[in-house]
Amino acid sequence: MTILLASRRRASVAAAGTFAVIAPPLVLADPPQPVLAVATLVLLVWAPGQVLAALLDPDDVVEEAVLVVAGGLSVNVLAALVLLYAEWWDPVRGVLLVSVLTALLAGAVLLRSRS
Amino acid sequence: MTDLMNRPGSAGWLRSHPARVPAAAVVLGLALTVLALTGASSVDPPVDSDLGLAAVLPVTYWIGLLGLSLLLVVVLLGPRRRPRVAGPLLALLVLVAYGAPAFVSTHPRGEPAWRHLGIARTLVDQGRVDPDVDAYFGWPGFFAALGTLAREAGVSMEHLALVAPVLNGLLWALAILVIARRVTDDPRHQWLTVWVFVLANWIDQDYLSPQAFVYFLFLVAVGLLLGPLAARPRLALRAAVAERGLPGGVLAWWVSREPVEPRAGRRVAALVAVVVLGCVITPSHQLTPFLLLLAVCALTVTGRLWTPGLVVPLTALVALWLLLGASGYLVNHPVLLQGSAEASAGANLADRLVGSSGHLAVVLARVALTGLVLGLAGLGALRLRRAGRLDPRLVVLAGAPFLAVPVQSYGGEMLMRATLFALPFVSYLAAAMLLPRPDARAIGPAGRRGVWALAGVLAVLLAGLLVVGRYGNARFDVFTEDEIAGTQALYDVAPPHADLVAGPHPVPWRFEAYTDHRYLTLTEVCDLQLPITDCIGALTARAYRSEGGLVVMITRASIESLRIHRASLTPDPLGYLDTWLAADAHARLAYANPDVRIYVYTPGSTP
Fold first, then answer.
1. What ipTM was estimated for this complex?
2. Which of A10, A16, B9, B188 has its CA 20 to 30 A from that of B157?
3. Using H for helix, E for strand and C for coil, what is the string for B119-172?
């Protein structure tokens, strides 16, 4: 199945996927810094949310913002539940699971998409 | 005088520079916000009125709040209307209306927010879900994400709890704007819908909680149901029934549905998105999945949903979660079909219409605010219908949540929760009453002035009732520094695994050591309607039985809550209990400050 994405959306998905690859070593730095807290939230909420929102082809920037937040938080709920029920939760695994999922999804979307 | 009128920012100057109106409105909005929040920060807990915050907020707060509300009416309905300015002004209105308590106190308001911090901490500390702890651990989705995000980002959950009402209010407002855009192209109607919602939402469920989070997801899902997943029947129902009779005509009408969204790929993506949202909502909250199902069923039956099969995965998700994820809790706590319609009505209405005169005034303000908006919505629906612009989906979605009220009392909160789920759609219908009729030119300037006058009166009335209704419990749910310090001390003085007993809700506890103690309120130990000596007998019997000891905490908030809700109780039961405990040779006063007293029965100190 081909996914139709406008060039701006392709760029957003590419940015989210790239951030999901390069950010984890930064945000897992010890001790955490305030700027890294923001980077962590961007990585965990914006990046997956942006990829999912692009798939829904929102009508405008307001709808896109709503879908990004809802999608990003939803991915975190599901990831945290999987790790907790598997009794395998820790913060590093949480960050890595969300970032790997985001990077894989972004890659798949970009491979399947055409503007 | 002429110079004054032509100064930058004055009315005359704005008339000659219309392009500056948006900037001037935002600057005025910011000034009103600063005025309001400066006023709110001048209030110190405790709040000394049964009317709550409304009675103690200074006039500057009211000028700021009412000014913002009126400013929105002006930019949306005035002669030089600028709907695009409504966004920043509504954000400021949310900050002023929902953020005021955060400027009164630096601690989260109400007991549940504190409890939720403890649940999230427990989950990530244990690294697993123990469904036997309590109901929250049967629906842990929100807490799992909260604990994880806070731990990974190093964010203070207490600070998050403090600002949560504003964050949730903004998210809800954005999602409701998306919903409004699905059903009308008129930007004034879209923004007025959000304005009515923000001012009518006294229900106060936007604190740091699973219901606030999944309510946002519910609104996003409804936005998708009304957008990419929407359908419209090609046939007119009346004509189809006239031609084919019942039920053939209805069936033909329903089958004639066609998708509103022409792109199949977008419909599939939206369908998957709603199912994913269902996967997050279901393990996060007990009630919301059922209300999402009700919305899906209502739109399906009325032929407004392109994918009637959506109800299958959503039902399966709920059933699977009840059977697997939440079964440990449900074995001992049957939730469904709890109580009769009569019992539900009693728990939702009659039980709330009691208390001190101030509290009754607050309850009446809540009823009046809800009644006012519902009444406006009814009139708005009639007006839209006459104009041939009534979208039946809004009526269906406004009514569907109330179907749950007779089935489940939800601890006496079902009517409130149903109202919250209906409110976005009710707000849309109510907002229709504030817009000039399509033939407004025919009724002339006087008619238009009537609309502006109605909107202006409502701007003041709704904002006033909102603060009274929303913060009417502030006397006992805004905690003092001493109460927070006392609750911290509770954990220092409590023996390991002790039973902790506090007065009636609210108590700002359980934010740590959630599973280390057994937490009870006095009303769970004994019936306070009985003589207090019976209650003390039950309490001491429990102290003597408890292997880990027993700690009793009496707080100002509990005393006020009991007095306000049960004004008929005499003498002051908690005051009597305090005196009795002070004289009991087996109890030790372990901590005291002006608002908190803590007595400890250590193991072995009792006969």
1. 0.95
2. A16
3. HHHHHHHHCCCCCCCCHHHHCCHHHHHHHHHHHHHCCCHHHHHHHHHHHHHHHH
